[in-house]
Specification:
By secondary structure, this protein is α/β, with parallel strands linked by helices. Helices cover 34% and strands 18% of the residues. The strands form ten sheets. The chain has a six-stranded mixed β-sheet, sandwiched between helices. The protein has a six-stranded antiparallel β-sheet with strand order 9-8-10-7-11-12, covered by helices on one side. Strands 28-31-32-26-33-34 form a six-stranded mixed β-sheet, sandwiched between helices. Helix 5 packs across helix 7 and helix 32 crosses helix 33. The longest helix has 23 residues.
């Protein structure tokens, strides 16, 4: 067993050709090579998979059945492995409740800090809140109007699981006769058996009272009892109406009594006895206490026995009266006043039951805003999505949800026609020329005003007079009524998110936002960027008092440490409240990297997949320092990377090749940087030595004289910028991470152009206008998302070539004789596919606590089709043989079939000749998937007026792959098209005709244009970080 090296022998996973290699332990190792040469197959699918599998196998059989085990890699054996942790480029979570702060655990420490060192303030007075006394509670109740009936409850169980049989017996022995369980009143001895698997709310009914002068002593006694029972908490639930109505009534009563105070001064001095709810007339009171259906009357503790009971029927308060919001337990019934021995405002009665960390959790009912359930935003039907193109008339389909069918639905058109007759407007008038009044009627309805709607159904004609609900009202109603998931998905396309009107995006209820540290509530800090939050928390200790400092010191240490790690991996521009689903793969990976450093593990094998993605050259040094720190803790760090700085920093380099796909899978060179540079076979060495390079064009294009200008862009962090892109050029949008590149290019330029040119339903980032779109005929966005999430998706199906291949096979004489249609040659539907494996070619065998085993189907031998389908052949090849071909072979095989040949040729041109025609999409790298998308768009007929937008197309590409990609993009520009690329790779930036550099920093310190012009012009701008690195590169 090797303790100094990881020894891999006979690795054959995917395209690896029996790789034997020794890697030094506790070193920083970079595996590089062409895209598709087998880097990830060696690092992730072999070394990491075996390390993780062995670790899981060391656990008990019971534990293993709960963990997902990786399949055993195709390798003879591996020695010297440690427990392995992989840090890949996958988005952390799509859940809107997951944020940068929650993923990194920073928010957990912040909740603890505000709960233990925070000071609650009254929203009414702005003064700190102190604990309430019983006297203050009594005074608060006495402000209610006279004769207000209420229940005094002790909330003994709040949202906890259990049966509570023992506790109910104890309360019964203490003399209490009634309880309310989950909103229902019961005699305590008749309480139903509770299900211990569900959460319950139990309140003991301490007293039932009517507000009368002179009842203060009894109320105080009852409060003391309730507070003792419920650990300092008490509820007053009004029997009639809401607290707001009662206070309004009391206010008007006090105003009128002030006017007549002199007239009845003597009457006011007469002694008034408190009116007991129960006493000598208990039977009468109980008879008159008529419950609502399903509720029980409440026979409460007896009063002093003086006077007669109130003979009016008192309804049971409805505990379900809460504000809107689907999260169970959020909000407060509108008939309830909460009293706490701990924190309450004597002026407004604002009460905080308990200051605990969960009060600041937007994922728990104790802290979440009741209006938005802690999401900070609400979905609403957006008029911009309902009418995306205001230049169209209603007849031509301006109102998209009502005009989706072609021709538009006769019912909706007759409704709109009736409106046009009633309110005198024309359906042929463009939407933007209709008056605001007419637009409002169509969208929001007639607000209750009846309209005569005339319908023609064949020969029948009839009229209906009723109010018109409006398009928005119609969509809302359909969304509420439908049970179809498809319909909900369709209607959701017209919805957009807007900040919650209650919490204004803070996600928390008012009680949580009332707790502050140095005058700031917790939501202010979560809205800061990592860099700004680090400055705030570093200076916070000096602003706290002595007691707060002692409490906060260990918490601040953890927060500052975690923020420091995020800052060191170049994520200082990320806001802490940014949702995880909006992060790029590279950002998610660096967040997990920062978390791993915080864990302080040693003796672990870390495997990373291109952590430099999306990172500006300036931040690269910080990332590499972090990786070295991880290594210095005593870990082995394996990085799959193409970045030149990473290769030069590594202790050990492995170069895979010599080609890609079937032409790769071998170790071309390995060793220290000096040893690699001496290798004659290594393409990487050739680029590092300078013997091969991506050349700077001799001449920069000026464009076709037209330009595309975005005016006044303010989306996200953009600072009201106006910028132009010359059409007919290759333009690069550059800048530090978080400087606003994607906000400008994707959120604003692409979204607005797609709405205008493609009729897309997208909401563009805020801007004044975009000029010059008339010079383009369409816009195409090529991003990094996968081409398919299932093994059934492949390059042939994505590019549409598989449809042509199936049509071709269906047209062959043999297929026509048998009556085979194109569907016969699909492996996704019954007919031609092998039914034993259902067209997968493999059969999954579940192994319980061992990894699942995939065996080749014995019926079709992995070919996916049944025998009869495979008998139809073209040039001696069946449909299964075609799918198993490389793109390179398919180009020559189908040279006489132009529709198939052209699509295959384009895949070959973007450097994917080695990929198999039917290769599963899930096995393609990010760079390969993006190039498949590019090939699909390039295979369409070019008009010479297309605007192409690419987001970091060099992701996962080797120097040689970048050179090939640039040739394809430059050819597009030569045909008259315009290409806009968001990029950090200096090899791409130096070949651009025009550069737009954003900055100067990231986040709130970015969003401005720092430099623009040719690479040579940008290199002269001292304020530009990109220009500084470009200057050095152009000088070579």
């Amino acid at each position: 067993m090797s303790l100094t090296h990881i020894k891999v022998k006979g690795a054959r996973e995917h395209n690896l050709k029996g790789v034997d290699i020794e890697l030094p332990r506790e070193k920083l190792i970079v595996i590089t090579g062409l895209s598709g040469s087998g880097k990830s197959s060696l690092a992730f699918d072999t070394i990491y998979a075996e390390g993780q599998r062995r670790y899981v196998e060391s656990l008990s059989a019971y534990a293993r059945q709960f963990l997902e085990m990786m399949q055993k890699p195709d390798v003879e054996h591996i020695e010297g492995l440690s427990p392995a942790i992989s840090i890949e480029q996958k988005t952390t979570s799509r859940n809107p409740r997951s944020t940068v702060a929650t993923v990194t655990e920073i928010y957990d420490y912040m909740r603890l800090l505000w709960a233990r060192a925070g000071v609650p303030y009254s929203p009414a007075t702005g003064l700190p809140i102190t604990a309430q006394t019983v006297s203050q509670m009594v005074d608060r109740v006495m402000t209610l109007p006279e004769k207000t009936r209420f229940f005094l409850l002790a909330p003994v169980v709040r949202g906890r699981k259990g049966e509570y049989r023992k506790e109910l017996l104890e309360w019964q022995k203490a003399g209490f006769t009634r309880v309310r369980v989950d909103g229902e009143f019961y005699d305590i001895e008749e309480t139903p058996k509770l299900d211990k698997k569900y959460k319950h709310d139990i309140e003991v009914v301490v007293d039932r009272l009517v507000v009368r002068e002179g009842m203060e002593q009894r109320l105080a006694d009852s409060f003391e009892t309730a507070l003792r029972l419920a650990d300092g908490l008490a509820f007053v639930d009004l029997a009639d109406g809401t607290v707001e109505e009662a206070l309004a009534e009391a206010k008007s009563a006090s105003t009128s009594s002030a006017r007549t105070a002199g007239d009845d001064d003597s009457a006011a001095k007469k002694p008034v006895r408190p009116e007991p709810v129960e006493g000598s007339g208990v039977a009468e009171a109980s008879a008159n206490f008529k419950p609502e259906p399903g509720d029980s009357p409440s026979r409460l503790r007896e009063g002093p026995g003086v006077g007669q009971p109130d003979t009016q029927s008192i309804p049971t308060p409805d505990p379900s009266r809460k504000r809107e919001g689907s999260m169970k337990g959020t909000g407060l019934p509108d008939n309830r006043i909460v009293f706490s021995e701990r924190f309450a405002c004597p002026v407004s009665g604002f009460t905080i039951e308990e200051i605990a960390p969960r009060l600041f959790s937007f994922n728990a009912p104790q802290g979440a805003c009741p209006s938005c359930d802690g999401l900070g935003e609400k979905l609403h039907f957006d008029t911009q999505l309902i009418v995306p193109n205001p230049a169209l008339s209603i007849k031509k389909g301006a109102v998209v949800p009502w005009a989706k069918s072609n021709p538009p639905s006769p019912y909706y058109m007759q409704v709109l026609g009736s409106l046009a007759r009633q309110f005198e407007f024309d359906l042929d008038t463009p939407w933007n020329e209709l008056s605001e009044h007419h637009q409002d009627i169509i969208l929001n309805g007639t607000q209750g005003l009846p309209v005569t709607l005339r319908f023609q159904d064949g020969r029948k004609s009839y009229e209906v007079k009723k109010p018109f609900e409006g398009v928005v009202g119609n969509l809302k109603r359909r969304m509420l009524q439908t049970e179809s998931a498809w319909m909900q998905e369709e209607l959701a396309k017209f919805q957009a998110a807007a900040p919650c009107e209650t919490c204004h995006g803070a996600r928390l209820k008012p009680e949580a936002l009332a707790v502050k540290i140095v005058g700031e509530d917790i939501s202010i800090s979560t809205r800061r960027s990592v860099g700004d939050a680090l400055v705030f928390f570093e200076g916070l200790g000096a602003q706290l008092n002595k007691t707060q400092s002692q409490i906060a010191e260990p918490i601040l240490k953890e927060i500052i440490e975690r923020l420091g790690f995020l800052n060191n991996v170049g994520l200082d521009y990320l806001n802490l409240d940014r949702t995880s689903g909006t992060l790029s793969g590279g950002e998610s990976q660096r967040i997990r990297l920062a978390s791993q450093i915080g864990s302080g593990l040693s003796g672990v094998l870390y495997v990373l997949d291109e952590p430099s993605i999306g990172l500006h050259q300036r931040d690269n040094d910080r990332l590499l320092t972090t990786l070295k720190r991880l290594r210095d803790l005593g870990n082995t760090v394996i990085v799959v990377e193409h970045d030149e700085d990473a290769i030069r920093t590594a202790d050990w380099v492995v170069d895979m090749g010599p080609g890609a796909g079937v032409h790769g899978g071998e170790v071309v060179a390995e060793g220290t940087l000096k040893q690699i540079l001496k290798s004659k076979r290594s393409l990487t060495a050739a680029y590092l030595n300078g013997t091969r390079e991506i050349e700077v064009p001799a001449k920069r294009r000026k464009g076709n004289g037209k330009k595309l200008t975005v005016h006044g862009a303010t989306a996200n962090n953009l600072q009201n910028i106006t910028a132009s892109i010359p059409l007919g050029t290759f333009t690069c949008i550059t800048g530090l991470s978080g400087s606003g590149k994607s906000s400008f290019t994707i959120d604003t330029l692409y979204a607005a152009a797609a709405r205008t040119l493609n009729g897309a339903r997208l909401i563009a980032g805020k801007h004044d206008k975009i000029t010059g779109l008339q010079y383009c005929d369409k816009v195409i966005d090529i991003d990094q998302s996968p081409i398919g999430r299932t093994p059934r998706s492949n390059p042939a199906t994505y590019t549409g070539a598989f449809t042509n291949i199936r049509d071709w096979f269906a047209g062959l004489p043999e297929a026509q004789v048998r009556g085979y249609k194109p569907g016969r040659f699909s492996f996704n539907v019954k007919g031609g596919r092998c039914e034993v494996c259902r067209g997968d070619g493999l059969i999954k065998i579940e192994m319980h606590f061992l990894p699942d085993v995939y065996v080749t189907c014995e019926e079709c031998h992995g070919k996916r089709y049944n025998r009869e389908t495979l008998e139809v052949k073209f040039k001696g090849k069946s449909i299964a043989d075609i799918l198993d071909m490389t793109v390179e072979d398919a180009v020559s095989f189908f040279k006489a079939v132009p529709p198939i040949r052209d699509k295959m040729a384009m895949l070959f041109e973007v450097g994917l000749g080695y990929v198999k025609v039917g290769q599963q999409a899930t096995t393609l790298s990010g760079g390969e998937a993006q190039r498949v998308k590019l090939a699909k768009e390039l295979s369409k007929r070019s008009t010479g007026q297309t605007l192409y937008i690419l987001d970091e197309p060099t992701t996962g590409l080797h120097f040689e792959d970048v050179r090939k990609l640039l040739q394809v993009l430059q050819r597009l520009v030569d045909q008259g098209n315009s290409v806009v690329v968001i990029e950090h790779n200096l090899d791409v930036i130096k070949t651009a005709d025009h550069i737009l550099d954003l900055g100067p920093e990231g986040g709130v310190r970015g969003g401005e244009i720092v430099a623009q012009g040719t690479p040579e012009e940008v290199a002269q701008v001292k304020a530009s970080y990109t220009g500084g690195y470009l200057k050095d590169m152009l000088a070579k």
